[in-house]
């Protein structure tokens, strides 16, 4: 018996950036987990990691937290690391067929061994003007990034991923 399907929708600056189908792994009412293959066409080299066709993402979304965490593995199952998007809390569509998050530009990368922890796109976040348009959301975003980085540095990062 296969797991139920759900669409994941990432919104940025009011427009859908990407939408893709995923396998629903679980939902406790606050924390939702899905699994999906790399959804973009071709690969993407970030310099510190390369995402490519065949990679599998186990993605964690929360309705009460300002981030999502994506565990990234090769198709053979080797852990690459965790890519964390700072987002507004996830919204599950009525009927449960789609989970949607709004990307707030900040990101965090944690390597598989936990030794490389990188704050990403802080310049994009500043340029977005969120701090002027919505100072409360900007403060939540920075706080979420700080929390994830602190957890990663303390070795408590993967505690988040238990459903």
TrEMBL record:
A Pfam family recorded for this sequence: DUF402
Lineage top rank: taxon: Bacteria
UniProt-listed InterPro entries: DUF402, FomD-like_sf, Ntdp-like
Boundaries of every DUF402 domain copy: 48-156
This protein's UniProt keywords: Hydrolase
Gene3D superfamilies: FomD-like
SUPFAM superfamilies: FomD-like (SSF159234)
Protein name stated in the entry: DUF402 domain-containing protein
Organism name: Streptomyces peucetius
High-level lineage: Bacteria, Bacillati, Actinomycetota, Actinomycetes, Kitasatosporales
């Amino acid at each position: 018996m296969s797991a139920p399907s759900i669409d994941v929708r990432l919104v940025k600056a009011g427009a859908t950036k990407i939408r893709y189908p995923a396998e629903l792994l679980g939902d406790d009412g606050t924390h939702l987990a899905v699994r999906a293959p790399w959804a973009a066409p071709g690969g993407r080299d970030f310099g510190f990691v390369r995402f490519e066709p065949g990679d599998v993402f186990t993605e964690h979304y929360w309705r009460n937290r300002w981030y999502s965490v994506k565990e990234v593995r090769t198709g053979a199952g080797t852990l690459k690391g965790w890519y964390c998007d700072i987002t507004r809390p996830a919204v599950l569509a009525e009927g449960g067929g789609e989970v949607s998050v709004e990307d707030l530009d900040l990101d965090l990368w944690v390597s598989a061994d936990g030794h490389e922890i990188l704050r990403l796109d802080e310049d994009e976040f500043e340029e977005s003007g969120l701090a002027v348009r919505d100072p409360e959301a900007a403060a939540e975003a920075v706080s979420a990034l700080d929390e994830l980085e602190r957890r990663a540095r303390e070795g408590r990062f993967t505690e988040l991923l238990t459903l």
